[in-house]
Amino acid sequence: MASVTANLGLRLGWIGPGSMGGAMTKNIHKHLTSQRQPPLRFFNQTASRGGARKALGSILYRDVAQVPSESDVMFISASGDYSVSGEANCRRRFMTRSAPF
After folding, report:
1. CB of 11 within 8 A of CB of 70?
2. Does pTM top 0.85 for this prediction?
3. Distances in Å between the alpha carbon of 53 and those of 19, 20, 41, 94?
4. 31 to each of 58, 69, 87, 98, how far by Cα in Å?
5. What is the phi-psi region of residue 15: left when phi exceeds 0, alpha when psi lies from -120 to 50, beta otherwise?
6. Three-state SS string across 25-76, please?
7. Which of 15, 27, 74, 101 is 20–30 Å from 6 (CA)?
């Protein structure tokens, strides 16, 4: 079965990978690279903790609102009031934009 990303060219984004999402985001990025797909886009509240993903070629955004505007599919993994309020705003922006298909 062909990869979904290969068929649709989906741009994947991740908000708040933190410690728990570290291995997942690295594996997703490696898969995207192996399939010659666009790199994973991500936002981490502590930008310095995204260095390993950025070194692999993932795109680190400094503003959480950039992820939904540059992604077709988003994963969200976060906790805390600040993260939740910022992500709720992101979801509103993501859900109101036009779908690419």
Report:
1. yes
2. no
3. 12, 13, 10, 23
4. 12, 22, 26, 27
5. beta
6. HHHHHHHHHHCCCCCCEEECCCHHHHHHHHHHCCEECCCCCHHHHHCCEEEE
7. 15
> What gap in Å lies between CA 18 and CA 47, rounded to an integer?
10
Structure tokens at 64: 């959480």
Q: What is the pLDDT along the chain (101 residues), one digit of tens a residue?
A: 454 444 557 899 988 887 777 888 889 989 998 999 999 998 887 766 666 777 777 888 888 888 888 999 988 887 665 555 555 565 555 555 555 44
What the block records as the tokens of 18 is 């933190």
14: nearest Cα among 88, 81, 69, 77 = 77
Helix (H) or strand (E) holding 12: strand 12-15
